[in-house]
Amino acid sequence: MTPRRLLDTLYDGAGYLAAGFVFAIFAVMVASTVMRELGLRTGGTDDLVAWFCAAAGFLAMAHTFRHGDFVRVELLIARLGERRARQVEVLALVIGIAFVAFLTWAASLFVYESWDFGDMANGLIPIPLWIPQSSFVLGAVLLLAAIVDELIAVLRGRRPSYVVAVEERHARGDFTEDI
Q1: CB 56 within 8 A of CB 138
Q2: Most exposed residue of 17, 54, 142, 171, measured as fewest CB within 10 angstroms of its CB?
């Protein structure tokens, strides 16, 4: 498997996993509603939904970034010439790398400390906190990889995948993400 294919598989896999967590939120909430109507206990469902929401959000970041679904303000870049726009794109990616690298480091330290101190969840499901927190680190690592990946592509003269993805969507007449 080529590095390009491996990275795309990782980004897409994390996106599908995030979608799975969104479905799991739905399933837990429906099950909780049915259980309440049947007079059964629903303890722990709030914990599960909270952890699944975090996992869905963080695991989807790299996939979302690569497909042009992050908020991107193009008012300035659209008015620049091609050379200047590329320079601004590189600068934005470098700044993004700096911020996401810090986020990844801080998240990793946070999860490591949860593991090291033996922190347990406070809710009705007593599990080590580092387990649900790990989705935060994995999502941050994948987003960092995706931004570095894009920077390398742009420095090699290619157009960013998020720009291409949006243009392809628009060419199909799909403007739903722009609303």
Answers
A1: no
A2: 171
Q: Using only C-alpha atoms, what is the Rg of the chain?
A: 20
> Which helix (DSSP H) or strand (DSSP E) does residue 45 occupy?
helix 45-59
For 7, residues 6+ apart whose C-beta sits below 8 A from its C-beta are 145, 146, 149
Q: pLDDT digits over 35-69, tens only?
A: 999 998 888 899 999 999 999 999 999 999 998 87
Structural tokens at position 14: 């994390």
Predicted confidence (pLDDT) at residue 137 exceeds the cutoff of 70: yes
CA separation for the pair 92, 144 (Å, rounded): 13
34 contacts: CB under 8 Å, gap ≥ 6: none
The number of angstroms, rounded, from the C-alpha of 25 to the middle of its chain's C-alpha atoms is 17
How many other C-beta atoms lie within 10 A of the C-beta of residue 1?
A: 8
Q: Work out whether the CA dihedral 85, 76, 69, 92 comes out positive or negative.
A: positive
Which burial class, exposed, middle or buried, applies to 111 when counting CB atoms under 10 A from its CB (0-12, 13-18, 19+)? buried
Separation of alpha carbons 146 and 68, rounded Å: 12
